[in-house]
Amino acid sequence: MSHSASQSAKKVRSGALVGIGLMLLGTFMFSVNDVMGKWLVATYSVGQVLLLRSIAALAILLPLMHRQNIPLKVPPQSWLHAVRILLSTLEVACFYWAVTYLPLADVMTYYLAAPIYVAAFAVFWLGEKIDRPRILAIGVGFIGVLIALRPSTATISWPAFIALAGSVFYSLLMITTRKLRDTDDGTLVLGQMLGNLIFGIAVAPFAWVTPRWLDLAGLFLLGVVSMAAHACVNRSLKIAPASVVAPYQYTLIIWAIVLGYLAFGDIVEFWTLVGAAVICTAGLVLLLLEREAARRGRVPKDIEEPVLPEA
After folding, report:
1. What mean pLDDT do residues 199-214 have?
2. For residues 109 and 276, is the Cβ–Cβ distance under 8 A?
3. How confident is the model at residue 293 (pLDDT cuts 50, 70, 90)?
4. Could you tell me if 54 and 200 are in contact, meaning their C-beta atoms sit under 8 angstroms apart?
5. Do 125 and 175 contact (CB within 8 A), yes or no?
6. C-alpha to C-alpha distance for 169 and 160, rounded to whole angstroms
7. Where are the alpha helices (DSSP H) in 126-250?
């Protein structure tokens, strides 16, 4: 191997390691964000949490967009951006509503099934072709959801349905994001934060609780941590291939179990763990299949999206 080839290989490995580190850091911060959100919605309404969280996030995002000369204007395909904003708002509202009643690990299990739904929905919405291995992986993923949900009159609950609905909204959000892949990250995140802000303004006054100073700091920190987590994940995907860093997003379930137990004493049930394992396995198989298809030139390489909930 020539010296230049050796240097290039070292650069690729170094980029991959930094990308993995950033993905792990971003995933951990999303998990901390989820714990903070669950703690806050025990006292404050979902609307109030989203309102104050979005104000804090916009206070950071708008100066950054100004520094990077990102124009504040209505982007092309405005109707699709409006759909994406609606889906983002519904997804995050369902997430916080669900964690009010369910352990973090339960809610995260449903959300980790989003790539399964994306693979199924993309056939109809994006016109992507699907082969037998992916059909089998999707089927296994749905079985994992059923295992975690345990649908019976004795075990099923409306909070579980809220979490499940949120995961479906999130998968549709991922598909609309894929259709808007040429839009810069700042504009996409700005739309989501504005949607959260409008939702909070409309809903929060009906159940407003004057926050204590400590809680107010936590509500604003929620937006700061969320923005930092987004920055880590986006940077990770820019300096390393998605197929390398994306599998590390499944550490979310580990953090949800550990932090849920430490912060709230949540004990994850056995069948939820089994369902989570099946869903993660199916998701990794889909990721490998799409990576192989991209290598052969059958699908665009940029379809590999992170599945981290925008919460």
Report:
1. 90
2. yes
3. low
4. yes
5. yes
6. 14
7. 132-149, 158-179, 185-203, 213-239, 242-245
Which tokens go with 264? 């709230």
Number of helices (H) and strands (E) in the chain: give both, helices first.
12, 0
Taking only Cα atoms into account, the Rg of the chain, rounded to an integer number of angstroms, comes to 19
Query: Which of 35-39, 219-223, 236-240, 285-289 has the weakest average pLDDT?
Result: 236-240
* Gap between the Cα atoms of 24 and 8, Å rounded: 24
Residues 177, 115 contacting (CB under 8 angstroms): no
pLDDT in tens, 117-173: 888 887 777 666 777 888 888 888 888 888 887 765 555 688 888 998 999 998 888
Residue type, position 103, single letter: P
Separation between Cα atoms, residue 57 and residue 6, nearest integer Å: 42
User: Does the pLDDT value for residue 85 go beyond 80?
Assistant: yes
* Residues counted in the chain: 311
d(CA 137, CA 32): 30
Among the listed residues 153, 72, 110, the one whose alpha carbon sits nearest the alpha carbon of residue 256:
110
Residue 243 contacts residue 287 (beta carbons within 8 Å): yes
Cβ contact 44:208 at 8 Å: no
Q: Are 185 and 227 in contact (CB under 8 A)?
A: no
User: Is the pLDDT score of 191 beyond 80?
Assistant: yes
Contact 197, 55 (CB under 8 A): yes
pTM of structure: 0.81
Task: Say which amino acid occupies 173.
Answer: L
